[in-house]
Structure of histidine kinase:
Amino acid sequence: MKTSQLFRHSRLRLAVWYTLVMGVILSLSALGIYRSLVESNWNAMEREIESIAGTLHDSLEPMLPASEDPTTVLKRILPELCLVGQLCNSNPSLIERHTTGISDRNTYYLRLFNHQGKLLAFSPNQPDNLSQTLNSAPWQTIRNNNIRYRQFTIILHSSDTHDLAVNSSWGYLQLGRTLQPFDAEIKRLKIILMIGFPLVLGLVVVSSWWLSGLAMQPIYQSYQQQQQFTANAAHELRSPLASLLATIEAILRIPPSQPQNLTKMLQTLERQGRRLSHLITDLLLLTSLEAQSSSQPFQSCCLNDLVSDLIEEFSELATIAEIDLIEQIPDKPIYILGDESQLYRLVSNVIGNAIQYTPNSGQVMVSLILKEHSALIKIKDTGIGIPKEAQKQIFERFYRVDSDRARKTGGTGLGLAIAQAIAYHHQGYITVKSQLGGGSVFKISLPQVISCTFDFH
């Protein structure tokens, strides 16, 4: 229960960190996108205002004489503008003609000032209560009746004035537009971010919980394997230890007058001690292989000799079990880089299992071939076979297909786990193909084949 809570709390902390990191990244990204869109729209609006003002400036300057009354001149060349102190008509204006196809014409207004900054004329759609005194700053943002406006001011010169100084100017052209569409667009962006960001953050929370589960899964599986290994190791060690203790207790109960029973019990004690020592040695070897802590460098090993020695070693056992042990070894030697003692253990474990699980009058065939720059050792038997559901588990530590049979023969369930670890340590692999009642085929592939021009025999 405490372990489950520990993993759940760890997953929760990991998910919180995922969420915080992604939340910060999304916040900065959203802020950057928001600022980029605002700046882009603002700059586009200013370019449009400046472009329209420039077009009006170029259209008006040639018609502006320096010697006549400005009011009379404006009445003649811009009859649609409203002159200060006179009635206005609402006919289509010059600003409307120049903004056709560019933007909404009703969002713009035009104002003309003399060189002293006095308002002379304005378009009918200008905002109410605007100041009639000129602010000569090129760009201005004003607020009128809670509506923002952006204005651009440019100097006008008459047609016969060549001095571009401000004091020699005819007057000023001021073009403005309402910022209502811009503010509405910004408000829409804010609403999208206010609604979208929590939704996206919610998805991030769910995704973080899922991702933290994926990240914790290998750790949890490793922990479960460690727990299972500890339980299995304790179980395997308990049996010989219990037998040792029972034998010792029996020895202690033997009266001095009956020393003839002591030898048999001491032999039992030795067998259990050897079994315990063998189990501990296998555990240490497996741990060393999985940690890849072996410091012994690989050397050239002749697989032909190795397999031949194993066939010779197991021939007596095969004869006793009435099993035909066959070897198929090529004449040309095959050398690989590896640890010869580990390779010997690897092939020995597989051959030993094949003989152990093959009934009398059966057959075990061991073959060695060179295939695509890899050495392939194949052990084929006519034994009892392995159930399909067990084939994925036979390489796990302490796993036994037939526990009772394995215990009677002294097996620990570590043989194939050690074989697989040795194969991996040599950058190879071991596979099994089996059918229940139809025998098994184990294939060991070792890729580190080397070419030799001399005989190691």
